[in-house]
Amino acid sequence: MSAEREIIRIAAKGDGVSADGIHVPGALPGDLVSEDGIQRRGPHHIEPACRHFGDCGGCQLQHADEETLAAYVRDRVVNSATGQGLETGEELETHLSPPNARRRATLHALRTQNGVVLGFRKARSHKLVDLAECPVSRPELVALLQPLRSLLASKEAKGAVDVQLTLVDQGVDVGLANFPLNDLRAIEAATEFAREHALARLSVDQGFGPETQWEPEPVTVTLSGTKVTIPPGSFLQATADAEMRMIADARQWAEGKRLVADLFSGLGTFAFALSKNRKVLAAEAERAAHLACKSAAERIGGSVYPIHRDLFRNPLQAKEISRFDAVVLDPPRAGAKAQIAEIAASEMGCVIYASCNPSSWARDAARLADAGFRLAKLRPIGQFRWSTHVELTSLFLR
C-alpha cells in the first residue's frame, strides 16, 4: 500500500489535494489518503443532502460541512488575487447561499423508451441524471419536474430539450428550446399546461428565438423595489440572498458618490439599487435587457439613465469615465479587459467590481493595480451552493 498523506485543501474542481500534489476525488481537508483513495475520513464530512450526489454534475461539495465550504470559496477568491501579486486589503466575511435558494436553473430533457429523463448532466458526461429532488433549488422549481416530464413526453423532439426555469414575481417562467410546436393541437396542449400549472410565462424557442405561448400578465422581477420586465432568458442573479449581499456592498462602497456608472448593467440590478440620491448611468449590450431597464427607468423617474452599448467592442473611454465619481462593474465570465484598460487610463478613483469568475477578475484587478489602484475590500461569495462556481465583490481605490 502506498504511503498515507493528509489532504490540506480542495482544488478548483473539487478534488482534495495533499501537500505533495496528490488529487483524490471526494476527499476533504483532514482526510488521510493514499494514491488508492481515502483511507480515513477527517472531521469535515457530512451526509450529502441529495440522493443524486456523486452522479449529478450540478454539485461537487455536498459532502463538505459549512466550515469547509466557506474556506473553499474564500481560498478560491483570495488565491486568485495573491496569484496575481495583489494585496487583498480587508477580507470580508464569506457569504454562502442557503439550501433551496436557487431561483433559476437550466435543465435538459431527453425522451427514452422508459419516458422522459429530465435533469442536469452527469459530471464530465453528456448523460442526464433524472432528477427526483434538488435541494439547491427553490421548491417552486422542483415542483414542476414531474409535470414537465408529462408535457415533454407528448412531443417527439430530436435531441435534448433545454428547459430554463426562473422564479419571477408572478410565479415560474418556463422556457423550452428544441421543443416543436408545429400544429394547433400542440400549441393548445402547451397553453393548457401553462394554465393548469399557473405558470408566469411559457416560451418556446424552435430555432428562431423564444416565442411566448402563455403570459397572462407582463412578467417582472423586482429589483430594489422597482418592477422590471424580464425578457425570456435574461440574466438574473441565481439567488436573491446573494443579490442582496452584492447590493449591500455596492451601496456601502458608493456612499457619498453622486454620479455612478453601472457597466454591464443587465436589467439594472445595481443601477436601481444605487439610484436613490444619486444619478446612475446603466450601460448594457444585450438589447432586450437594455430596453427592459430603460422602460423601468422611465417609469420611476430620471435617476437611472440606460444606454445601449457593447462594452467589449466600444468601452466607455477614459475621458467619459473621468466624469463619474464611481464605477460599478458586473461583467460576464470573460471579464472586462477592454473596459478595465480605459478605467485604468482615466481619473477614476473608485471601482466596485462584482465577478462570477475569480480568474478573469484577478487579471483585471492586476491591471488596476498597475494603474495605482489598491484592493481595499474583498468578499468571497458562494452563490451556487455545493458547487465549485465561486463569485465575489470587491472595492478598488486610488
Description:
The structure is a single chain. Helix 1 (66-83) runs parallel beside helix 10 and helix 9 runs parallel beside helix 10 (358-370). The strands form four sheets. Strands 6, 7, 16, 17, 18, 19, 20, 21 and 22 form a nine-stranded mixed beta sheet that branches. Strands 9-8-10-11-12-13 form a six-stranded mixed beta sheet, with helices on one face. The protein folds into three domains: 1-45, OB fold (Dihydrolipoamide Acetyltransferase, E2P), CATH 2.40.50; 70-98 and 236-397, Vaccinia Virus protein VP39 (Rossmann fold, 3-Layer(aba) Sandwich), CATH 3.40.50; 104-218, Beta Barrel (OB fold (Dihydrolipoamide Acetyltransferase, E2P)). The model has no long low-confidence stretch (mean pLDDT 94). Helix content is 26%, strand content 28%. A hairpin with a 2-residue loop joins strand 8 (104-112) and strand 9. The N and C termini lie far apart (56 Å). With 398 residues, it is of the alpha/beta class. The chain contains ten helices and 22 strands.
Short description:
The chain is an alpha/beta fold. It has helices spanning 66-83, 139-142, 145-153, 184-196, 240-253, 269-274, 287-300, 318-321, 337-345, 358-370, and strands spanning 5-10, 16-18, 23-24, 32-34, 37-40, 90-91, 95-96, 104-112, 115-119, 161-168, 171-177, 201-205, 210-214, 220-223, 226-229, 259-263, 279-284, 304-308, 326-329, 350-355, 374-382, 391-397.
